[in-house]
Amino acid sequence: MDIIELLRREFNPRQVIVDETSLTAYATDESGEGPYYPRAAFLAQSPLEVEKLLRLASMEGFAVTPRGLGTGKSGGALPVCGGVVLAMDGMKRILEIDEDSSLAIVEPGIITQTLQQAVWEHRLFYPPDPASLDTCSLGGNVAENAGGPRAFRYGVTREYVLGMEAVTMGGKRFNLGRKSIKGVSGYDLTGLLTGSEGTLAVFTKLIMRLIPRHREPGIVLAFYADLASAARAVTALLSSSVHPMALELIDGYSLKNITGIEGFAPPAEAGGAILCEMEGLPDDDALLERLADILEGGDPLHIDVAMDPSACRRLWTARRNVSTRLKENHRYKISEDIAVPRAAIPAAVAQVQEIARRHGLHMGCYGHAGDGNLHVNFVTDDDGARKNFAMAVEELFVTTIRLGGTLSGEHGIGISKKRFMALEHDPNSLDMMHAIKKAWDPQNLLNPGKIL
Amino acid sequence: MDIIELLRREFNPRQVIVDETSLTAYATDESGEGPYYPRAAFLAQSPLEVEKLLRLASMEGFAVTPRGLGTGKSGGALPVCGGVVLAMDGMKRILEIDEDSSLAIVEPGIITQTLQQAVWEHRLFYPPDPASLDTCSLGGNVAENAGGPRAFRYGVTREYVLGMEAVTMGGKRFNLGRKSIKGVSGYDLTGLLTGSEGTLAVFTKLIMRLIPRHREPGIVLAFYADLASAARAVTALLSSSVHPMALELIDGYSLKNITGIEGFAPPAEAGGAILCEMEGLPDDDALLERLADILEGGDPLHIDVAMDPSACRRLWTARRNVSTRLKENHRYKISEDIAVPRAAIPAAVAQVQEIARRHGLHMGCYGHAGDGNLHVNFVTDDDGARKNFAMAVEELFVTTIRLGGTLSGEHGIGISKKRFMALEHDPNSLDMMHAIKKAWDPQNLLNPGKIL
């Protein structure tokens, strides 16, 4: 039977989207890949419906691509093989906030910031803060194991997923993980599904660990003449006893592009900056002094300090807009998300600058330096130079792997980086990933065409 | 061909142990299970030998049970199906300590404390601290995803395994994970293997994340009239803004059993105690005061403070000896390792006490309260009451699961808790674990009989 007919018969037809105009919303995401149109999108409202859809898919042999809010940067939510997009954004309830045990049970469609704000009211904190915080779904964060600036202090999404309810292709629903902080009972399937980009199971419920609400943070922003000096200051900070919540590096080209946002005014000659956010800074002068001492060792051009929440918010707004501004200010942009061992950051930055230069491209590079995670953006307005994007990206990955790094720090592989997997992973390792995929989804119908 | 003959032909015969006296060392561990004698033990010296042994095993169809230093508490290293024990304790070199990137590359047979001491010299810290710290192997810790008191602040072993070299049954060797802090490139096989109790692959190299050396810790020890008051003080601490490195609960019976060790002298009427270790306590009076304030809210009988390293060491020695002393002081002892959501700790403690009472057993209970992880010991000198151990343990697990907890906080399932797996995990979830095991080890020859 035709997929559309089948879906309309089995579900409420209002949950089945088929017209091309409406399907456009499900054909792209933030990766810039596609569009890839599905035959239909199904708006799930309950775990039972997810179960039923995945049972039908297995019986009828159609592909299903789960989707949160489409903010992914590697194409994980794109239906590259057609079939049905399983839209999870309707399942977004908070089912429980347990203050005493510091956990929340939620549906996967909830916006990450909504969860953060809800638990804050209960004197709790959910740390992961991807740039798309206010528009991304928690389920998408778990699927991609999202990070963000505060991952430096608090770790990535994986550290906060205690357990889940999930459904595999074929419609088997099961509970994984636990509600306790610790647990070593059987294989860590929760960890395996986190970051598996929707290729192994669809989440229908998430048990998230929370931590006590932190004290008021402050930000110290140090500008340096060149990126190498800024990178060296990062290294000095890392080996000190101060523990920032976030430790971000921003290169000169990125600084220029965000100048003016919310009054952001770097020195004109700045070639690099460090943004260091620390808990308790507004009322701890000794801490502030220790931090300033370390940053001044690198001979900065200028140091800015933001103590009140609104000043901090303005700085974060500027920082979070680097990618958007680079895109607005150039005709062509391609952005990557590498991670290297921390000590390799200065070398990575230098080599990436050299790659850009060789290919006649501009490069804006920024990111979570404390974690060795850099967002590298090649930009140009020139049609000729644009053709060098592919070559530059390939060289970027080769360089990254040679420095002991990885293809993706927090965006995932999806379709965008799939062809580079063999650069990083040896054949035996890829075989073992294939074996898991095959064991769980033998027909290769759940988000096919991703990662492997 | 006979296994022994084969091993002697293929390897240096001095690495092949076959006489029963020597094999005794490989027939038991710290679980109290067994003895289970293997046909032989093979003393591996290199990844290539591990590869070759696992290739031979697959071809000839004999079971292989990897073993670190045999300190496991759930029988994970016991060769319950005979075959060959693969002794990894000869592979114990430190291959690299990278100070700037805060990581170490080591062989799995290294003693955990040896690694800790080596990296400390480089101003780095490896946090996990299982009780067997000075006798256990790092590879065993990774296989069981070991915890320890400081897991409260720093997390369990899994948080520190960045990558590994591993060999699957059949002899495929591969590299997993990365050297960068963050990374989301393909399935998290490193996380899957951590805690898989040697059933999926044998580690031949481990890449461990390290953190900056912490400041000098101090310990505050608060004694309460009963365990419930102590448990309430734990809850108060958890919702405060102080961040202990370790937060331990000790019940009255355990306190009595360790009285006298290194001068440990609890008040005679103490029914419970909290041991709270905090970084920076020796030189931060404000912190000490805040901590004392919280603990005094629970109306303690007495508060002890240990500021200098040797006083702290003495307290830890007493605390670490609870299990040993309970064993020495009673004819029969059985110990379990449950974890519950933190808020359920007072209820768990009360219900466990009731289980012990009903079965005429003494109960010594202590553990990592901050993580909801409790070590429950039933003890008795009475032959009749001893027969109730099995029933008490079953009730303990039923209670634990009912409170939203898990069978094991840090010791693993092994053979000791295998029969209780269905209490915690639904059939679909167990099916998915089986599917992974089958995909990686279709002949079921790598550490068979464990977990599933």
Rg of chain A computed from alpha carbons, rounded to a whole number of angstroms: 22 Å
User: How can the largest sheet of chain A be summarized?
Assistant: 7 strands, antiparallel
Kindly give the count of domains of chain A.
4
- The CATH architecture of the largest domain in chain A comes to 2-Layer Sandwich
Q: Overall mean pLDDT score of chain A? A: 95
Strand order of the largest sheet of chain A: 15-12-14-13-17-18-16
Quaternary state of this entry equals homodimer
Unreliable stretches of chain A:
none
Query: How many helices of chain A?
Result: 17
Strand percentage of chain A: 15-25%
**Helical amount of chain A:** 25-40%
Distance between the termini of chain A: 30 Å
SSE-based structural type of chain A:
alpha+beta
The total of beta strands of chain A comes to 18
Overall geometry of chain A comes to globular
What would the CATH topology of the largest domain in chain A be? Uridine Diphospho-n-acetylenolpyruvylglucosamine Reductase, domain 3
CATH class of the largest domain in chain A: Alpha Beta
Largest interface: A-B, 85 and 84 residues
